[in-house]
Input
Amino acid sequence: MAEPILHVAIVEDDEEIRQTLALILNGTPGYYCRHTFPEAESAVRDLPELLPRVVLMDIELPGMNGIEAVARLKPLLPATDFLMLTVRQDDEAVFQSICAGASGYLLKDTAPLDLLRSIREVSEGGAPMSAQIARKVIQSFHRSQASPLSERETEILRMLSEGLNHRSVASALFLSPHTVKTHIKNIYEKLHVHSRAEAVKKALKDKLI
Output
């Protein structure tokens, strides 16, 4: 029995990438792409009426980002699977995407054949992820079983262990110095320590970072 033809929509601001993806889909039996969007706002407006089976969603978009777009669209399109296709590999992007309602997460260097397989897989109930992303998810799961720290606190503590001060951490993470200080205070309380050196030592000993 032939596999069902999958209606795929694309949200991608890079015109060359957007057109290439559409060509791959429309040139492969079992897939078609009639609708592409250069930014999230028009996708959020139009996709609920178009009812695609799968949406390939970039994250870094002009205006609204792809994660917010998924969070808005998923309640309106419960039968649609959202597959992130991005250059972002950081933990925060991965887990925010999953929390927003994405069913899979691929990097843009994914080979065309693997991309097609992933689209089919997600439409059949799977959760495809690039190998690097799957490893991050597993590592985070392992950390969460033993670590009292949040993902953000772990990230900040890791940066402190590399010698950055709180202002440098704030700049790197686009946070205010006050917010970083609050996170550091919470880290100290959770680890029952009183200094950065003690926090880093305990985190390394307990394999929290």
